[in-house]
Amino acid sequence: MLSFKSYAKVNVFLKVVGKRGTYHEIKSRFLRIESLYDMLVFKPKTPKKGLEFFGDFGCGVHNNTIYKAHRFLKEYTKSSLIDDFFEHHALYVEKNIPRGGGLGGGSSNAAVLILALNKILGLNLDIKEMCTIGNKVGADVNFFLHECEAADVEGAGEIVMPIKDDIPKIELVITNKACDTARVYRVFRESFWNSVDTNLAYKMAGLSSKELLDSFAPIELNDLLRSVLVCYPILKVFTRERIFLSGSGGTFFKVLNGYNNSKK
């Protein structure tokens, strides 16, 4: 049995800076949250045809990011080792990261599948090649492929720049309210586009996470907070002072006393 941790993330800040068709260009600071993770477990099985992916995905297997990562990895590598491996192993995903929580659970799972198979099967993919695959799977995958504690992220999530940072001690505030990312961004574009401040976004990118969380209000740090509250008014109860939204919701976080200096 082979097992791998699939960590969550939070956004210290998330600023929308442009449009790319139906997508949005962002500048953001991602932090890996090691206290919350899913587990990807590969267990031996009796050989038979077909993939066996098990987990509470909240969608059909073929729409899952893990399935997409598997498919695009096969297309890129053209390696028969992948089919051989899944002929003898089933994948079980133990889900702990809330779906629709702005914590990147699906993206993390997809990245860990790529990383795990690259290691187990000796595919010898470098980070650039893995990110080429990650781009096809979805936003945020590339952050998790970098296996870093902190990074500045741009574009639609595909540009990842690992950084040294003062990593804050964070406590997650789980609301158990799943938010639809596409809906949140659509409301932002329809109702809050005039509030886009690219100058502030670039200023934030030059600050440490400690400086950001000490100096700015939650509404300033995350451009999507207002549209999340329009879409899901029930979450207003969580918008207290110094409680910050991660991504497109619906998980919040607060900073505990003290900071952990990054080892990276």
Task: For this entry, give a set of tags.
Ribosomal Protein S5, domain 2, 9 strands, 264 residues, alpha+beta, globular, disordered C terminus, single chain, 31% strand
Round the Cα radius of gyration to an integer and report it.
19 Å
Distance between the termini: 30 Å
CATH topology of the largest domain: Ribosomal Protein S5, domain 2
Task: Count all strands and give the number.
Answer: 9
CATH class of the largest domain: Alpha Beta
Briefly note the structural class of the backbone.
alpha+beta
- Percent of residues in β-strands: 25-35%
Shape: globular
Tally the helices: 10
- How many structural units, i.e. domains? 2
Tell me what the CATH architecture of the largest domain is: 2-Layer Sandwich
Biggest β-sheet strands, sense, barrel: 6 strands, mixed
What is the string of SSEs from the N terminus onward? EEEHHEHHHEEEHHHHHEE
The portion of residues assigned to helices is 25-40%
The average pLDDT value, as a whole number, equals 92
Uncertain runs are: 259-264
